[in-house]
Amino acid sequence: MILAHPTRITEICEGSLTAEDGTLRLELDSTSLGRSGTAKLVTALGRSIRLSGDTIDYTLRMAAVGEPLQHHLAATLRRD
């Protein structure tokens, strides 16, 4: 997956897709990060995305500004 963020960071991620019992799981880790001269220093990103029925669970891990890779944010989206 290739992403361009509004925070002046670009990201290339690679990972795996698994399907089990009607649930899709995508695990991604950054393999290349680019940034403008004014962007914060992000050194690693990782994502977990799970689709089960009408629900998507998403978590983001980030290493930035001298901090190690750690949980950064999470969201759950439900279709009504």
TrEMBL record:
Coiled-coil residue windows: none
Domain of life where this protein originates: Bacteria
Secretion signal, residue range per the UniProt entry: none
InterPro entries per the UniProt record, alphabetical: Calycin, THAP4-like_heme-bd
A Pfam family this chain is assigned to: THAP4_heme-bd
Annotated ranges, domain THAP4-like heme-binding: 2-79
Designated name of the protein: FABP family protein
